[in-house]
Design a protein that fits this description.
The chain is mostly helical. About 80% of the residues lie in helices and about 0% in strands. The protein has helices at about 1-45, 45-60, 60-70, 75-90, 90-95, 110-140, 140-160, 165-195, 195-225, 230-250, 260-265, 265-280, 285-305, 320-335, 335-355; strands spanning about 100, 105-110.
Length: about 350
């Protein structure tokens, strides 16, 4: 009896080996195909690359529209950073919250509160981004977006009607917290759901919209400077309502991230979200397969990361790449833009004490 069962066991083992080989073959084939596509992309002329990008944009135009909508919330980062210097530049702002100095015949906000005013947003952003990392995978992306909008609208309202400097500081802190949520969550939502051909372009939207926020804060400041009275600076604060308010209109219709659904094992919900995000012409099964494959890759990377330590990034083996990564991230600060946006604080303090 035992000898009769041996061939069956052997055949099962053979079938298992064949299945494993097929899986490895499929993976190998996919890797070679991806490498071939990457090599082909490198050989394209700039014109051909733009043509390919345009083709991808047309193919997934519904997703592109959703991506533009979601990323519009990042506008608050640039506008909020520009707002700090713009507000202090208004004489009526300094008159409402500052102290009178007879020497220069002007009102000046104390140096401590100027520093807190400028730091409040950054402090809030750090905590907002940290909390996004902690809770985005637990609650989903949409609840974080709702929280960001609610905080932004509440903080903007408090900012306009703040009676004194402490309330003004807390309002700016809460606005910074909302900016932290709205700066971390939209890029996460867009990049994790982007098709491979659009991912790099979608990621670049972050900086584009941040710079647009800076630019519009300057325009708002210039326009508001033509107004006399407290509404000169309050108009600049009112503009913080605009993007979150418009964003809130479309938020109930935004599907939850299909990737988040797949992480939670809710494959059927992920399929429905894919249809809403990409339209009825999308190959749902292909998108599900891609998401599963990317999640498996992420699990592998997370496992490898868990086997190392923070000390490793400063080791002789990795020291050079750590330096290059940090240098790249800090290049924007080296440009002097951050200093230029904060110079108004130093100028106001100097006017107060040396005029």
């Amino acid at each position: 009896m035992e000898s009769k069962n041996l061939p069956e066991v052997s055949s099962i083992g053979a079938l298992s080996s064949v299945t494993d080989l097929e899986k490895k073959s499929e993976i190998s084939h996919e890797e070679h195909a991806a490498a071939a596509n990457a090599s082909k992309a490198l050989d394209l002329t700039p014109k051909e690359q733009y043509q390919q990008l345009w083709s991808n944009l047309k193919k997934d135009k519904r997703f592109v529209l959703w991506a533009l909508y979601v990323m519009s919330l990042v506008f608050g980062w640039g506008y909020d950073q520009g707002l700090s210097g713009v507000a202090i530049a208004f004489p009526d702002f300094r008159k409402a919250y500052g102290e009178y100095y007879a020497v220069g015949d002007q009102y000046v906000i104390p140096a401590l509160w100027q520093s807190l005013w400028n730091a409040a947003s950054t402090i809030g952003q750090v905590f907002g981004a940290f909390l996004t990392g902690q809770f985005a995978d637990y609650t989903g992306r949409r609840p974080i977006l709702y929280l960001a909008v609610a905080l932004s609208l509440s903080a903007s309202f408090a900012l306009i009607f703040a009676p004194n400097l402490p309330v003004l500081f807390v309002s700016k802190l809460l606005l910074g917290l909302s900016v932290g949520f709205s700066t971390a969550t939209p890029p996460l939502y867009v990049t994790e759901n982007s098709p491979a051909g659009l991912r790099s372009s979608a990621s670049s939207l972050t900086n584009v919209i941040i710079v647009l926020g800076f630019f519009l804060s300057s325009l708002t400041g210039y326009g508001a400077s033509k107004i006399d009275g407290q509404w000169s600076y309050k108009l600049a604060f009112i503009m913080t309502f605009v993007v979150p308010g418009l964003f809130l209109i479309g938020l109930p219709f935004l599907p939850e991230s299909p990737v988040w659904y797949m992480k939670k094992g809710r494959e059927e919900d992920a399929r429905k979200a894919i249809l809403r995000l990409f339209g009825k012409d999308v190959d749902v099964e292909e998108r599900v397969r891609v998401i599963k494959s990317e999640l498996e890759m992420m699990d592998g990377e997370a496992h490898n990361a868990s086997q190392t330590s923070w000390k490793a990034i400063f080791s002789k083996e990795h020291r050079s790449r750590t330096f290059v990564a940090v240098l790249g991230l800090q290049s924007q600060n080296f440009s002097g833009g951050y200093f230029a946006s904060k110079i108004s604080t130093s100028a106001s303090i100097a006017n107060a004490y040396f005029s």
